[in-house]
């Protein structure tokens, strides 16, 4: 459990108070501007960017609606999906694509039976409650909880109506249960295939650390979810996802206008933002992906008993480095670990600076990405490299829960 040590330096406490104060100001300003710019006319109120309130939740809700129809995978065709949105929202609505696996319909089906605003309210309340409950278990000090809850990544989750509050809670729980409850960790890993880009490094980590039980349970859970999806909606849904959905998702990466640059912190989009070709950007991305895979393999093979918070922080930072398609709200897990490490008081000055940069990464990416200025994508690999060097010097710290830091000031994770 992450706790601020009783003898924490005043310098560290002051830095944490400053972080909380700055993030609270950011939240209040963002909330005021967002509320002021909302147009409440009609059943689908719009925000200042002409997107419906809840933004990405619209896609999730449409998955839920499609689950009750005879041809649930038809919206993987972008033209059909555009027509369906036009029928609901009027012509000219900004383009959106179906990018999730069809198994998302299992989770979205109940929300699809509700009116949009009621579904959004339930989704937001459930996601926020789950996330805060999980973080409260692993960050015992209220100052740490406040810093995480007010972080830019958490705010972006709320604005976008995204699933990242839920997936962040799942990821934190997975790391806490890897050794004590490998069955639960494996089941949650299998469920994480609903958003597969978040879990691409888990096979590397599990194989490197020899956690084969969790590996097998995760594989079985993923296969079961795929089978249930095919049984309920027909095997064609998976064919449509592979043949239509995945290629459409790649259109965001090849977009010549690079409109997604402000919202994507991976190195691929930073390089594309400079005007580099898709091939060059993907080549650079491949180098960073190789670094991420190697760093995770080394840490969990040779330092699996090192500081558990450092291990989790390395994994989440490398998860951002490893994939080309990941948005700013998906940085919430590494934000949580950055705050926990700041609160622990064990980071040197360089580590504190990097942890704070990780915390503000969504805002830095938006500010520089709007002008197609590269650089923010270097923050996660720099933080990962720093943590890796710390792990190389940390020869061992036995633990039976990856987020449980055995220290006099922190109780064991229940």
Tell me briefly what this model is.
The protein is mostly helical and 414 residues long. The protein has helices spanning 10-37, 57-66, 78-89, 104-112, 116-138, 142-149, 152-160, 164-177, 182-191, 202-209, 212-233, 236-254, 267-273, 278-302, 308-322, 332-344, 349-359, 361-369, 379-393.
Model description:
This protein is mostly helical and 414 residues long. It has one domain. It has 19 helices and no strands. The protein has helices at residues 10-37, 57-66, 78-89, 104-112, 116-138, 142-149, 152-160, 164-177, 182-191, 202-209, 212-233, 236-254, 267-273, 278-302, 308-322, 332-344, 349-359, 361-369, 379-393. The radius of gyration is 21 Å and the shape is globular. The relative contact order is 0.13.
DSSP strand count: 0
Task: Give the percentage of residues in beta strands.
Answer: under 5%
Structural class: mainly alpha
Q: End-to-end span in angstroms?
A: 9 Å
Mean pLDDT: 89
Order of helices and strands: HHHHHHHHHHHHHHHHHHH
Number of helices: 19
Question: How would you summarize the topology of this molecule?
Answer:
Layout: H1 10-37, H2 57-66, H3 78-89, H4 104-112, H5 116-138, H6 142-149, H7 152-160, H8 164-177, H9 182-191, H10 202-209, H11 212-233, H12 236-254, H13 267-273, H14 278-302, H15 308-322, H16 332-344, H17 349-359, H18 361-369, H19 379-393
Properties at a glance:
414 residues, mainly alpha, 19 helices, 0% strand, globular, disordered C terminus
């Amino acid at each position: 459990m992450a706790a601020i040590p009783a003898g924490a330096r005043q310098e560290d406490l002051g830095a944490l108070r400053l972080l909380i104060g700055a993030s609270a100001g950011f939240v209040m300003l963002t909330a005021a501007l967002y509320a002021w710019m909302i147009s409440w006319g009609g059943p689908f109120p719009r925000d200042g960017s002409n997107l419906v309130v809840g933004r990405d939740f619209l896609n999730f809700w449409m998955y839920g609606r499609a689950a009750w129809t005879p041809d649930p995978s038809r919206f993987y065709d972008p033209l059909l999906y555009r027509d369906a949105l036009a029928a609901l929202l009027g012509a000219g609505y900004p383009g959106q694509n179906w990018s999730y696996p069809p198994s998302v319909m299992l989770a979205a089906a109940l929300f699809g039976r509700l009116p949009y605003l009621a579904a959004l309210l339930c989704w937001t309340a459930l996601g926020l409650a789950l996330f805060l409950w999980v973080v409260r278990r692993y960050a015992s000090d209220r100052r740490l909880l406040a810093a995480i809850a007010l972080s830019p990544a958490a705010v972006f989750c709320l604005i976008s109506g995204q699933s990242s509050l839920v997936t962040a809670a799942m990821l934190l729980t997975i790391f806490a249960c890897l050794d004590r409850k490998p069955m639960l960790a494996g089941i949650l890993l299998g469920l994480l295939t609903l958003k597969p880009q978040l879990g691409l490094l888990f096979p590397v980590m599990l194989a490197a650390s020899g956690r084969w039980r969790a590996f097998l349970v995760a594989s079985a859970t993923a296969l079961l979810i795929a089978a249930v999806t095919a049984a309920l909606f027909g095997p064609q849904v998976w064919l449509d996802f592979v043949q239509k959905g995945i290629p459409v998702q790649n259109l965001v990466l090849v977009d010549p206008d690079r409109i997604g640059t402000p919202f994507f912190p991976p190195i691929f989009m930073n390089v594309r933002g400079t005007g580099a070709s898709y091939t060059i950007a993907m080549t650079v991305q491949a180098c960073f992906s190789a670094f991420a895979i190697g760093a995770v393999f080394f840490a969990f093979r040779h330092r699996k008993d090192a500081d558990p918070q450092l291990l989790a922080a390395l994994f989440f930072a490398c998860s951002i480095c490893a994939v080309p398609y990941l948005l700013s709200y998906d940085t919430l897990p590494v934000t949580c670990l950055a705050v926990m490490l700041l609160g622990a008081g064990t980071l040197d000055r360089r580590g504190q600076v990097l942890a704070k940069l990780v915390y503000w990464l969504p805002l830095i990416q938006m500010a520089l990405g709007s002008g197609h200025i590269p650089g923010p994508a270097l923050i996660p690999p720099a933080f990962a490299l720093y943590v890796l060097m710390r792990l190389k010097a940390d020869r061992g710290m036995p633990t039976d829960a990856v987020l449980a830091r055995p220290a006099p000031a922190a109780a064991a994770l229940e």
